[in-house]
Design goal:
- By secondary structure, the protein is of the alpha+beta class.
- It has helices spanning 21-24, 35-46, 90-100, 111-136, 142-161, 172-186, 194-206, 214-221, and strands at 2-7, 26-31, 51-56, 63-65, 68-70, 76-77, 79-82, 85-88.
- The strands form 2 sheets. It has a 5-stranded mixed β-sheet with strand order 1-3-2-7-8, covered by helices on one side. Strands 4-5-6 form a 3-stranded antiparallel β-sheet, with no helix packed on it.
- The longest helix is centred in the middle third of the chain and has 26 residues, at 111-136.
- The protein is globular and about 45 Å long.
């Protein structure tokens, strides 16, 4: 089953020359409950890039392949297209959306901030993501519990002193925020982390429209979410 949704963001001119409107549309093919898709939606909201989004139900058979997956129709998710251009994988899509966005790029210019950004992205893939997946699947080990606690405590401390994870808004924010949304929907108790809650509110304040997570909620609560 394919569910059609529209991400409502501000309109913007993508090119200096007027072209056929159809060629300007950015279309995202994503998967319900997939954190990689959530990251793309977060980045689009932060960068004020309107997306026409199609979400496939997580009931569709998929195989995990790095940062994206294949639907049984051989379509890759997440996948972004614009006209005859197509790119797959969350890292590539986030970069493309960032370039198309309004204002200053989220890529830090200072080496220190760039290093911190990349560190937190690695944390997401190597520790935070797997532990979050274990929580959603109700398969938490003592190690997973400790990992989640350590990551959240570190974030809480950092966000007590910074508005965003590396100080300025960067790629680290949508990457990490996606897992916070998953934990929230899954019922993880975040009351001990008020600075994380305030940070999420600041991120949402940057968005051109509200992030629609209803399509993810049922899948996450049923343990069917794909954390990648």
């Amino acid at each position: 089953m394919i569910i059609k949704t529209i991400y409502r963001g501000g309109m913007m001119g993508l090119f200096s020359r007027k072209k056929d409107k159809g060629s300007n549309n950015l279309e995202l093919l994503g998967l319900k409950g997939q954190v990689s898709t959530m990251k793309c939606l977060l980045m689009a909201g932060i960068r004020d890039v309107p997306l026409k989004t199609t979400l496939a139900s997580s009931e569709v058979a998929v195989d995990q392949v790095n940062s994206y997956q294949y639907l049984e129709t051989s379509d890759k998710v997440p996948n972004l297209t614009q006209g005859d251009f197509s790119v797959s994988g969350v890292r590539a899509i986030l970069t493309y959306i960032d370039v198309k966005g309004k204002g200053v790029s989220l890529i830090p210019k200072k080496a220190r901030n760039l290093g911190l950004q990349n560190y937190w992205i690695d944390v997401c893939y190597q520790t935070f993501g797997p532990a979050t997946q274990a929580f959603i699947n109700n398969s938490m080990t003592e190690k997973d519990t400790a990992t989640l606690s350590d990551v959240l405590k570190s974030l809480e401390k950092i966000l007590a002193e910074n508005e965003f994870i590396v100080g300025q808004l960067s790629f680290a924010d949508p990457h990490v925020a996606a897992y916070i949304y998953v934990l929230r929907v899954g019922g993880y108790d975040l009351t001990d982390y008020p600075n994380i809650g305030k940070w999420i509110s600041r991120l949402e304040g940057k968005m051109s429209g509200s992030l629609n997570i209803e399509g993810f909620q049922a899948d996450m609560q049923s343990g069917a979410s794909q954390v990648a």
